[in-house]
Amino acid sequence: MPEDSLDVIVIGAGASGLTAAAALHVADRRVTVLEARDRIGGRLYSTPTGDRDRALDLGATWFWDGEDRVRTQAARAGIETFDQHLAGDTLLQETAGVRRLSGNLVDAPSLRFATGSQSLADALAAKLPTDSLCLNAPVTAIHPAYRGGLVVHTPGGTLRAEHVVLAVPPALALERIDFGDTLPADLVRLASATPVWMGAVVKVVASYPAAFWRNDGLAGAAFSRTGPLQEIHDMSGPDGTPAALFGFAHARTMRPGFDQAVTVQLTRLFGEAAADPSALHVHNWSEEHWTSPSTVQQLADYSLFGHPLYQHPALTGRLHWASTETALDHAGHVEGALGAGERAAAAVLASDGVPASGISRRR
Could you tell me the domains of the chain? Predict the structure, then answer.
């Protein structure tokens, strides 16, 4: 961890933080990214399958037409993308049984990353000097420095920077980081009440030797009024390999026997071929200490996303908000995370009075 003063400290190495850091590095700012986890990516989190570098997403999965930041970043990094499988019928699970509905009534046209969404984070991190990214470095406090700038405290040491970019969900930042009494009361109330996108969700991915449901004319799409999975989608890779189904459940439904209940549900919907998945990945995002605050299941006012207070730096213009929850457009999506990171970087550069493409300040 660097010991001297920096231009910018970015907190969080997810899509928004890495985007902000890369833009600031290109503009010759001395920037360090502090990441509490032992990995980068945040909610861009994929598990490898061993099949031609394919991966299954346990976090963010899709992006859509019009989300040009994601499309551009993937193209520049050479990341293969492909269309979400749509063809086939939908299944509806009710207490009375399972009904088959004509056409895919769940999915909309979207795109996915063949190597998993985490590959986008890897590509963003590759733009940074290796010594600018610090893992296992949770931030415990942020306070104004006596001679200007901000002081950032971690278990591994204390740093000072002219600016700090908060690239983590606002409610998480307020719960995990001590700001003393430096933040305005209305900002504290806002940040504490802002939901964490998908923070109260359990994502389940079931892998199979083949996408057998497609042979039955099914899209792999389902709604359920009984659970535990509330909706289900095809997560197979290009050309159906690797084959997988995935679904969402609310974290409050987690209890002993959840895995077995999921398998029973998939079997009722898709038949005996679904009874024995080759792997079942269950990821409870509400238990991710560095994604979700303890209040995550009570936060439900999504109208707070992109709130005007997030568009303006706090602490005399030195503390910048940059997570997908703060984005003005596409909030909650990967596109929103990239946009929020770009906005924070631009605000840092504008405060210096130097254009983003401007003069080197590296000392």
Answer: 6-42+120-197+291-351 (3.50.50.60), 50-59+84-114+200-287 (3.90.660.10)
